[in-house]
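Inputs:
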Amino acid sequence: MTDFFKMHFFVPLAAVLGLVAMAYFGAQANLQWVFGVAIPYLAILLFFEGLIYRIVQWARSPVPFRIPTTCGQQESLPWIERTLADKLDNPSKFTQVVGRMALEVLAFRSLFRNTRTELKKHPEFPEGQKLVHWSYKWLWLGAIAFHYAFLTVLLRHLRFVSEPVWGFVHRLETVDGFVNFYTPVVYLTDIVLLTALTYLLARRLANPAMRYLSLAADYFPLFLILGIGLTGFLLRYIYRTDITAVKQLAMGLVTFHPVVPAGISPLFFAHLFLVCVLFAYFPFSKLMHMPGVFLSPTRNLANNNRQRVHINPWNYPVKFHTYMDQENEYREAMVEAGIPVEIPPAAPAEEEK
Amino acid sequence: MAKLPKPQDLAKVNYQPPAKGWMHVKPEFRPGTYVNAAQPKWLEMVNYPYPRAWSVTDEDWKLPPDWKEIILQGMEDRLKRFRSLKLFFDICVRCGACADKCHFYLGTGDPKNMPVMRAELLRSVYKRYFKPAGKILGELAGARDLTEDVIKEWFSYLHQCTECRRCSVFCPYGIDMAEMTILGRELLSSIGINIEWAMASVASCYTKGSHIGATPQAYKDMIDFLAEENERITGISTPVTYNRKGAEILFITPSGDYFADPGSYTMMGYLLLFKYLDLDFTMSTYAAEGGNFGYFISHEMGKRLNIKMYEEAKRLGVKWILGGECGHMWRVCNQYMGTFYGESPSFLEVPKSPITGTVFEHARAHKMVHISEFTADLIRHGKLKFDVSRNAHIKLTFHDSCNPSRAMGILEEPRYIIRNVLPEGHFFEMPPNTIREKTFCCGSGTALNADEFMETRMKAGFPRANAVRYVHEKYGVNHLGCICALDRATLPPLMQYWVPEVEVTGITELVGNALVFPDEIERTTDLRDRPLVGFEEAEEEEEAE
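Outputs:
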């Protein structure tokens, strides 16, 4: 275990454990107003302000060149067939770009393409080694499972801020709790979320190259969300708290009439605090990949450079060597070689004069 | 030059990362694994900053006194001008999907060659000086001070990236290492750190007309010689006009095509094709270079070279431009040229094939057509008569060059041509994960095709070569086709090293072999003077005589 790894792994782990302890003991020390009201408001404020600030910051820098990464046949001669996949992976029209982005954002298209390459011994080749490439969907599966499970869990939590609870939240709960084997009903997404997170963490630890490149900024959000998931899991299935009081707290927050009812367990405050930290941390972290992917110039532009000129707002004239510079230097030799010139060389007789 | 290890040794790649964290591992410059520093004279020729004599293995790189300010100012400047840079710095989650996609990583096993890490080498400095977290937390936030060792590390790893964009295909956010490498090399160039192979080519191209530094008369000589070769082999005279005003088409191809084998055979193919069509074309001694090594130094230098194409088309009054087979040339021509110029060149017309009448609508603003598009259209309209048996000695696999596939998408045009000029059953694809948008780079692009870099080049080209080895063993493939002049310069040594049974060919060379002229002499050899199938004995007899 290198010192580099130790620092980047254990510091964020300690930080998340520390955050849990802060909220847990803070709630016991009668700081419920801080953890139940002040910090949630602050976190939401930071989230939205930070999000807007960062997106504006990105948007302020122009896109000087149209540089899509093309992953299929271009639009060229009309008889060259372009499949739907070509149109989506190498879009030439705006509608196709929309399709490409939708696939990227909703289905993680590029990750779905993922391959794994390994060097294997192969005595039949003179060099004795062979690179083997195969389709590798585990990362895609882990990523998409995590993101959709997290989204579902988040949507289910809307039951705390709606009165009466919105219909789609009910329906979501019904579907999510379809497999009924325990009381309270176990939501499948809870299991998926925790499993996917464990996978995403394990792959960083198990693969030496991944361990080498991972930073605290990679472990921290993983620990944080794992912390949120685990505290939530405990709150729902094991150490249940007064759910009506929690709803009162949540409704108070969203209606801007905050109240802190009695009977909410410290564990809940730990859960809520971690969520707040996640929201506040979001705009300043790699989690900004969520809005960022929409702005990615290799994905959100059409491959139509030859049909429409892309304008670079800071384009400037450059110094270049002109044709006349060349001719002036090589005129005699060019004429001798039979290459046409703009200005015929002075007649030798005149030169002598 | 450093001695090249044996393939058996080079193929044993060690993927185990070092025990120390990456911030504390210094770059190592061993002969065979770095590209030489540019001589000052080249920088002076193009007015580039801080020309000086220095060497990569020197302890002191003689950086200008305020080098740190220049780099940081340059980074700030580029963050303001390129959304891509800012975004790619900010949104990487280090998921590692790009890691085993990079041919440099697969070939060297050096973890800093994983695109995610290569980007991190730059990102760590960005975090340290432009992000509050990095300023406060330092190493814990993945940030580190900008030191001379960091500059050396950038030099090493930004010159172990061929801007091939394979990582960008797999990145869930489309983060493009090529973009980071381009901008990183710009930063290095701003403190006078350039590589010889790029800078010498650029300065030669800038002042004389092409990377190889041929004067106008030498340029004409080289092409005329290839035209004569055509006449000797086929009996068909394929004359070329130079700088001819009023020609319909300006033909521009990389210097690799007229400078050396096997590119020269592709050049012969172009000339035969144009003669067959009686095409009204001319070539220019000024816009004599299709490739653009300037782009491997900076966007600006790329523009300073690229602008010659439209300027010359305007001077000569041609209707449109036809471009030869080349990789990065087409990235620049496709994704940058119009933007560099700032508008659609109004002095040109929408390209229209004078033979078939096809209007190349997809190039209507840009007015430049790729030779593969042009040829495919001719074949489709039945305008070319082929004798495919003249390519019967060739069993071909096709290498999609990085840029035509990932910065353009010209995948089917060359394949259509191949199927029409080869006998049935002579074309074999490499494994699907190594072609089309997933193609592997030759390992020597972006001006890394320097001899002194041979060991790393052979490592980086290993994934490509290994896939060729596969089809060679399985189907007896003996030729590797490509539509890139740089490939034709770099793949032959790569094949010689890894798969010596396989030769490299351009696609238009195959067209030239197969084209049947009404008044040609009997052909017994291909354009390389190799006997055609059925004429092997005649050749031997001739030799005996």
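Remarks. Residues 216-234 of chain B form the longest helix (19 residues). Chain B is about 45% helix and 5% strand.
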